[in-house]
Design goal:
Elements (H helix, E strand, L loop, with lengths): L1 H38 L7 E7 L2 E6 L6 E6 L2 E5 L1 H52 L1
Antiparallel strand pairs: 1-2, 3-4
Helix pairs in contact: 1-2
Length: 134
């Protein structure tokens, strides 16, 4: 029982780490989506602050306000209109949000199973103690 309980705890820890990664990804996608919303309607030559990660921004001049470079897969990027890029990011963000909910559900289920097993182990230990005292 203790071995299985350790496995549940390990699984819950791994799921929590996965949740942290997914949450960071969702926040990153949200920042990109917000930026694209403010990018819409910008003129060529406008100065913008571009997030590069870790709360750091660089100044840049807009060269082509009608196109943005968007990742579409393993090291593959394409130029898209900002509206299309925002739609793709919104869809990915929705998928990540679904995964976050699934992982949260798995964490709750794993923790509930661990709690039930821990209670069983404690009851078995108490029975063992009681039988030794007789």
């Amino acid at each position: 029982m203790l071995s299985v309980l350790d496995q549940y705890r390990y699984q819950a820890e791994r799921l929590s780490q996965q949740l942290q990664v997914l949450t960071a990804t969702e926040q990153e996608l949200g920042a990109a989506w917000d930026f694209l919303g403010s990018f819409e309607g910008m003129e060529e030559g406008a100065e913008v602050k571009v997030p590069v990660g870790g709360g750091v921004f660089v100044s840049a001049t807009v060269a082509r306000p009608d196109r943005v470079l968007t990742a579409v897969g393993d090291d593959i990027s394409v130029e898209l209109p900002p509206d299309d890029a925002a739609q793709r990011i919104g869809e990915r963000r929705d998928q990540v949000r679904e995964l976050i909910q699934q992982v949260r559900g798995s964490i709750e289920q794993t923790e509930a199973s661990a709690m039930a097993l821990q209670q069983q182990a404690e009851a078995a230990f108490q029975e063992l103690q009681a039988s030794k005292e007789k």
